[in-house]
Amino acid sequence: MTDAIVAEGLVKRYGSVVALNGLDLKVPEGTIMGLLGPNGAGKTTAVRVFTTLLDPDEGSARVAGLDVRKQADELRKRIGLSGQYAAVDDNLTGFENLDMVGRLYHLGRARSRERARELLTRFDLEDAADRPVKGYSGGMRRRLDLAGALVAKPSVLFLDEPTTGLDPRSRLGMWDVIEELVKGGTTVLLTTQYLEEADRLADQIAVIDQGKVIAEGTADQLKEQVGGERLELSVATTAELAISKEALADLAVGAMESDERQHHLTVPVAGGSGVLMEAIRRLDGESVKVLDIGLRRPTLDDVFLALTGHHADNDSAGDDEK
Amino acid sequence: MKLLQALADGAVVSKRNLIKIKRVPDLLVFSTAAPIMFVLLFAYVFGGSIEIPGMDYREFLMAGIFAQTVLFGATITGSGLAEDMTKGIIDRFRSLPMARSAVLVGRTTSDLVNNALVIVIMMITGLIVGWRIHSSPLEALAAVAILLLFAYAFSWAMAWIGLLVRSPEVFNNASFIFIFPITYIANTFVQSERLPSGLRHIAEWNPVSAVTLAARELFGNTSPLQTPPDVWPLQHPVLASLGWVVVFLLIFVPLANYQYKRAVAR
After folding, report:
1. ipTM, 2 decimals?
2. Is residue A174 less than 8 Å (CB to CB) from chain B?
3. Is the CB of A17 inside 8 Å of chain B's CB atoms?
4. How high is the mean pLDDT of chain A?
């Protein structure tokens, strides 16, 4: 398999701030790579280099076999970009926005119009097609922006935080749209602050911190490093804590951690809510009075803590479990 | 072929900007409301106290109003670009295989169309308050052409400032400092020879004075009782105006392009 995106030692500095610090990345053709990291990790800078918006200070990058610096003109014909700030014109209608993009991809008048209508239907924007974008909801804007990135049927698609700032319902809608999209075999580079999003959409995940890839693998591989899901419970007494430990021992997929003073137990598990149900049944059977119990999935912050020893340093990343 | 493609791309971007005029008509209303008030103010309030030898002040006034109007109209280029810079749309444009020049060419072209529209409205206003064209239709057309050409060249200067400041609010204040003296220390509303000597020199060499006088002469709004000041640009206002257009384009097209590249490479 050939690689649709290859980056070697990308460096980009803004004065004393190092946005990219020797970023290496390979994305095989037809796969979805999730670039995971907190704000300021360098995700957007990387996307801007790949989409020819920004020249790197050092290193090289090839997208669809073309050098981002030397073959930028040729490359732009083959990529689509949908950014974190929806790049649509408020004063134009949805149709006019897509038609304009088609014209600028040089599809010609008839083909541009046809493609615009096609995409509006596909992204469920038919009814709003001839209304100015000004009146669109946040979710509709993002869908239109994504449609704009697809006008020329690009072979490599860049989605820079496609769901940041969306409400949970629009986010789910957006995920459906993206999942549908990538069935077509397009190579996608997706940046996100949400492990859950990368987990759902990406084949491979690269964790990025301070302008560098610090870990790479499938969602499962990363979660293994982080410890995966955890069952957390609190009980009233030390005696009950001991009983709980014994009752749940064979559900644990790793070492249990218990806090004798707080009567708090953390059990690494696998299997989702089924395990939670089983745990509750067992504890009930032992007549343990459970004060609090819950399943905790690893967040970006957990990944960071496990990989780097420091927090993601990001106010919006940690509280994002839905 | 490449040039044709670039022009086509510019036309697409220009169409985008023109749709905005249609969707947000306030823009056109406000860019004509102020000059119309100026016409009324000078025609009926100040005009009575300003004496122009050999003619009614309103005949003298309108060429100055036209010059003022297209200059203010050209500032839309700067505020429009500054506004675009704050949004994601420029990134979208830059990720497309379109001509690099299209954003600036499209912007200045749509503002030229806007200015043409505004000048028609102002000519109708002038006709209502008693201004008349005393020359041939061809000469009148030449007057309009010179006003629009100068406005087009000037909008490249505004583009440069807009890209330099990158904020529509800052641009509006910054351009004011620039545009106020160039519009009013000139022969737009009074005869430059009546100004105190220091200002008079500035006014005589001000490009806006040449453009205003060129329009005034081509519309036939001058009188044999007036003799243009004895400086080259006002002796040859049409040639001088065209010269200024070339100078402005030579300076500000490269500057605006340079600043555009700088502004987006972040």
Report:
1. 0.86
2. no
3. no
4. 87
